[in-house]
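Fig. S4 source data, part A: sequence.
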Amino acid sequence: MVGLLLARRAVTLIPAPINASSKADLERAAAVIPRYRELMDRLSWSQPLFVGEVASSHVGGDDALADVRQIWSRIESEEDWLPLRAWMRWSLAEEPEPFLDALCLDMLRGGPDPGISVPVAAGADHYASRFGLVVARSHPTSLAQRAEMAFARSIVSWTIPSLLQADAERILHVRDVMSEELAALRLAVESASAGHGDTGDVRAAARVYSERFGEHEQDLLLDVGDEVRPIAGAVSLTLVAMPPDVALRSSADAAAAVGGARARRAHRPGDVGGGDEVLSLLVKVLGRDGTKSGSRRVSVGGR
């Protein structure tokens, strides 16, 4: 939700049949793969965001599924990822319909199958590094997520009010009302991440955004028959740079730790990946509707 508000354009992985080129291809897949139909039904709320070009499943016609399959091949062939192989379901790589079914199931239930979620996460990072995108990540809670932080280089952090729950029309409305402040904040963050701007510029832009959000809060959150009741709250955001293969490194280390000392090989920054980096935005929800400390007023900070 935070990414849909802050990004100029959000790119997300939408499962689709291999070589699907028409609406008829998607409809045929939905007819034979019930979980694909269920996932598409759950995602239907976001259709106005795609129509409004706020969200997309590709960059220039290139989506992330090819990157996911490339990561699958790397796990199979590269020794660095040996501890991950016990998690993989290799038969799916050659069976398009079972692969699509397994991917949809994993997304529907929140990603508990590492045989699917690890290649998807690593594929998304690889895709983002190819196109210069920023990957949105939740605040780390799992063992593998916390391990990723050992490879992270912090750039800047700030705290702002944001939508936490809303329908697509509400997101579009807030983006429109806050367009100038959002544009200034995006520019400041981009400049800081490229080393051309000061983190103080991010703090200043976040402060102006926060003040404007507070001034227009009643309009921004006014429920006028929304399909989903709009909810806002404070979020802590940290922009970090990580290796593009950070999900593989941290997951391999976690798998090795669980599997025993024989498979253990702790990766260190610089071990693998050639020194390239991908930007990630870490998102931590601090409170909803002002329940945190009784107020939605926020502060900003930088590193």
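Fig. S4 source data, part B ends here. Residues 114-131 form the longest helix (18 residues).
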